[in-house]
């Protein structure tokens, strides 16, 4: 009788069957024999009845939602021009966990770029000026975590500055010596000019002095008596009166 009863219930024809008050319904996870959890897919659930007071199976963790990764952070290396994504996760739960990483560029469609069991991933060949968006989920045997997200904008390439040829600095000692030589040359030139001016003035002074006129010399001697004897003096006076 019980066999035919449970067969009818199992077949889904329970229109005439009423649940006895001595039993209770339990949702069991298919394949594990444990009670289904909130994360057990509907296709993996079945209903069983057990006598009240009987111990129930434990709740399955088969489809339990895994923890979300934390501290999902980008780090850019300017020298290598690479981007490293890193994150944290509970070490006690890492054994059956891997991490799925997706990427979108410039607001485009997100694509899976890797699945890894490591806690970091490095990206190369970044396009300057483009914004990169990332999502990271922890993947268990039968479920995934909520996604962690981060983004990064690749810096623009800087133009290399033009290189100017170095100018040799002027030695202050050499510059001072050069100035002294110039001053000495200027002083010598000034001295020469002064000598030339003085010579010119002397020449002008000499040129202004006129030679004595013969008439003046003659006038100065007119009427003068030469130291001669009386006879000659009288002769000269008579000659002048003619």
TrEMBL record:
Gene3D superfamilies, A to Z: Immunoglobulins
PROSITE patterns xref list: FN3
A Pfam cross-reference name: fn3
Extent of Acidic residues compositional bias: 171-221
Residue segments, region Disordered: 1-21, 142-242
InterPro entries recorded: FN3_dom (IPR003961), FN3_sf (IPR036116), Ig-like_fold (IPR013783)
Residue ranges occupied by any Fibronectin type-III domain in the UniProt entry: 68-159
SMART domains tied to this protein: FN3
Protein name: Fibronectin type III domain-containing protein
